[in-house]
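so my prof wants the structure for this chain in the tokens format not the other one, which i didnt know existed until like an hour ago. anyway here's the sequence
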Amino acid sequence: MKILLAACNAKYIHSNLAVFNLKAYAKEYDSQVVLREYTINQLKDDILKDIYRCHPDVVCVSCYIWNITFVRELMQDLRKILPDVPFWAGGPEVSYDAETFLGKNPAFNGVMVGEGEETFLELVKHYVNGSVTLEETRGLVYRKADGALQNNGWRQLMDLSKVPFAYENLENFENRIIYYESSRGCPFSCSYCLSSIDKRVRFRSLPLVKKELAFFLEQKVPQVKFVDRTFNVNHARTKELLRFIKENDNGITNFHFEISADLLDDEEIGLLNSLRPGLVQLEIGVQSTDGQVLTAIHRAVDFDVIVDKVRRIQKGRNVHQHLDLIAGLPYGTLKEFRSSFNDVYSLRPQQFQLGFLKVLKGSEMGRRAEEFGVVRTDRPPYEVLSTDWLSYGEVLKIKGIEEMVEVYYNSWQFARTVELLTEEFEDYFGLYEALADFYEEQGYNGRSHSRMERFLILREFALSLNPTRQAAFDQALLMDLYAREKSKSRPAFAPDLSGRKNEIYEFYKKEAGEHQYLTGDTYEAMNARQLLNQTHLEILSWETEKWYLFDYQKRDPLTGDARIVQIQNI
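here's what i got, hopefully its the right format
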């Protein structure tokens, strides 16, 4: 008997914690349970071939809003080559309308609803030795022999500490994000979110969590991303875990937490400010700064409190902060979104994500969509098209702005130039609105652009706004260009340094002997030519000639920028 657990991830760097948890929980049947991970970017034919060659007796597949279309199409074809193999689905995309899903997808035999660990174990027992029947297994919706659907109801929520650790062998996770779960459930009631359905927050035992985090630290994994819906819901636990990762910091591993900023107390902020720069990333869902919108979605959050907490964390200059907004919420007009955008942007987070309402099955928003005039796509991800307050044209406008924010803000490759450009507009929203319009007018949308092309487009846009500031824009663009990497090609607007090569080389000869600016063991062993190849020296002229040295060995852990040193003379 071979039971295949299949996951179709969004990207190769992602891993699917859910299927690894299922396999770990059914460890007594380890030899019968086979796990395969794919991506939605792979050719379906290649996945079909791989699954077929596994010769599975049962196939179980994990379903999410972002992979369900791919999975349905895949299973339709898989059914043709494995006509007698039972197919089971699980995951949030199928749990809340399992009977409807099975009615529309005849390739599947059944659905595991809700938490899957105990349900999957009993399903394995059913197929391996018949010790458990489908009829007595809670958490299943399935087709009976006569074709009728049987719904056994949801299973009681389990003790999270009973789920075995899924990462004992890290060979499968090289160069991939490690997802970790220390709690399930959410105490809040946000109407658009499925997590609000499970209001009983359950924690994995603290000693167990520490033991597992210690393993990640010992193995020096690059990043551990907590999937807890609100990491800091319990103050004592939050402080204990922050102290633990601080005391056991290996200088490499980064931890990502989703938090509610308004819940942070003084001691927690103090702990965050004391951490190694880059050790922690915080994801903070703002969604809107408008009181009427927040009330409609059941988010009792005071944005002024968020502002205070975010700025206090920023004072430490060591914690990456990611802030979110959602467009298409009830009572959310374009004017409201513009105001929320400006409010959040003024905080200058390291990442600023603009999302769009997804009307999820099982959520309160899903039940009240018609009431709020929410029109969404019929296909996943069920994204908002319009509301009573936001037209489709306005949604498209925000989508254009979203793309510009992603390219020109979140990449941090254009930070100085963008900051200079904000001076040309009444508000931050206006800058990205104009930039999106410029892309549309010039026909730049829908095309792939190199990094250098993005710089040239931004320069073109800047000069179209105010050609009198060309020198300032060019200087900022050059600073941004070389802050990230030593560019192989030199833009045409950069100063001609061909006549200064001897001066530059002499600077590096002197630096190889004195190490006035480039210090540390790595540089101490380099000669002038090696120093020149590993760094960059650039002239930027304002009123007087100024040289800047870009040190790529020492980078800002929050932005990725090189250390930049002004050179008095060369």
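also thought this was worth mentioning. The mean pLDDT is 94.
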